[in-house]
Amino acid sequence: MNFLIDAQLPPALARLIISLGHGAVHVEEVGILLSTDQAIWNYGVANA
Question: Contact, 9 vs 17, CB < 8 A?
Fold first, then answer.
């Protein structure tokens, strides 16, 4: 399962999820930290 961690949560959460064997990325890591909710949603759908 893959997780896209939103801006209000710490990037460390993505690392924790990865350590548990799942895929995860923080919005900051993919350059969409300051994007709109719709843009973040679109990224999540496109990269599911």
Answer: no
